[in-house]
Design brief:
transferase, 12 helices, 24% strand, 7-stranded mixed β-sheet, alpha/beta, HHMT-like, N-methyltransferase activity, globular, 38% helix, 3-stranded antiparallel β-sheet, methyltransferase, S-adenosyl-L-methionine
């Protein structure tokens, strides 16, 4: 499987326009650029604050994860977990709680791969504040998934894991098929790999497939959904099961001029710093119009709710 093609390069150089108040002077609209790691953290937080993404994952943890966790470890006294792109760690700790409930008294070695230093710092702070982590050890690798893979191969490390999770992170991976193949090879016998990715029933899928011309070239992620991942798994002849969970994202503020939260959410959606302030007016209008289409969003009590449905793909060892 090849990630969906990126947009053709668009020339979004700084635009020089006549000042509406004084035609004798000129002013410059800054050119568009991608988010830095720090800016992404802020934009992502705005997304989380206005979406049910984490509540959706909580439902999965409640309904499905206990059964998955119960089958891990094969009676061993220690269970090894690897989080790939774990971010600030909230979901990791919730899954560890489920594992502790399924295997009381078992030691847990939790390793984390996360390249963003701000996320690593926030994760460590969360661990320091969290109760009930007796018997759980944490090891952080401030690396990308590809850097970790390279390090493992260069040092000839053969560590295996009982549970590996890749939550909403494959959009930033260059070689998705080989990344999945590598981490699948890191599973112990009867281990499980969990991939959480946007569903093909989500508004993202429609936006990326049908309205891609409305998105800027500064968005550096790959446009992939669950169908792309399951196609890779089938090609690798790996068994899996998909669980679909509904999730929504209230994007109403994205249509309110000058709203700070709306600005951050549009930055997250486009991967672009200050999209509303730097994108050409025609591109802004096209994207806002696309977001309102029924394939992307619904209206509820006067609010615009973008469909953020998730697919939880449980992969067998």
């Amino acid at each position: 499987m090849t990630p969906l093609n990126r947009l053709p390069s668009m020339n979004f150089e700084a635009e020089i326009l006549a000042d509406p108040h004084d035609n004798s002077e000129l002013y410059v609209i800054p050119s568009m650029r991608s988010l830095t790691a720090e800016e992404y953290v802020e934009a992502f937080q705005s997304f989380l604050d206005h979406s049910t993404e984490h509540q959706c994952m909580d439902e999965f943890n409640k309904e499905v994860m206990p059964h998955i966790m119960a089958g891990l470890g094969n009676g061993k006294s220690t269970i090894n977990i690897l989080g790939v792109g774990s971010g600030t760690g909230e979901q990791d700790l919730k899954m560890i709680q489920v594992l502790q409930a399924a295997h009381p008294g078992v030691l847990i070695n939790n390793e984390i791969i996360e390249p963003n230093p701000q996320h690593v710092a926030a994760y460590k702070e969360l661990v320091n504040r969290a109760p009930d982590l007796q018997g759980v050890s944490f090891t952080w690798h401030q690396l990308t998934s590809s850097e970790y893979e390279q390090q493992v191969k260069e040092k000839n490390i053969h560590k295996k894991f009982d549970f590996i999770h890749m939550i909403q992170m494959l959009y930033r991976v260059e070689d998705i098929p080989n990344t999945i193949k590598f981490f699948h090879s890191c599973l112990n016998h009867q281990g499980k790999l969990l991939i959480i990715i946007l569903s093909d029933s989500s508004g993202w899928a429609s936006l990326w497939k049908k309205y891609r011309h409305c998105l800027p070239s500064t968005d550096s992620g790959h446009y992939i959904t669950s169908d792309s991942i399951t196609a890779v798994l089938r090609k690798l002849s790996i068994k899996y099961h998909v669980y679909e969970f509904p999730s929504g994202w209230d994007i109403t503020e994205c249509f309110i001029e000058g709203d700070p939260a709306g600005g951050h959410m549009m930055d997250f959606l486009t991967g672009t710093k200050n999209f509303l302030g730097t994108a050409p007016a025609a591109l802004r209008s096209r994207l806002q119009e696309a977001l309102c289409q029924p394939e992307c969003s619904s209206r509820k009590d006067g609010r615009v709710i973008f469909c953020n449905n998730l697919s939880m793909i449980v992969v067998e060892s």
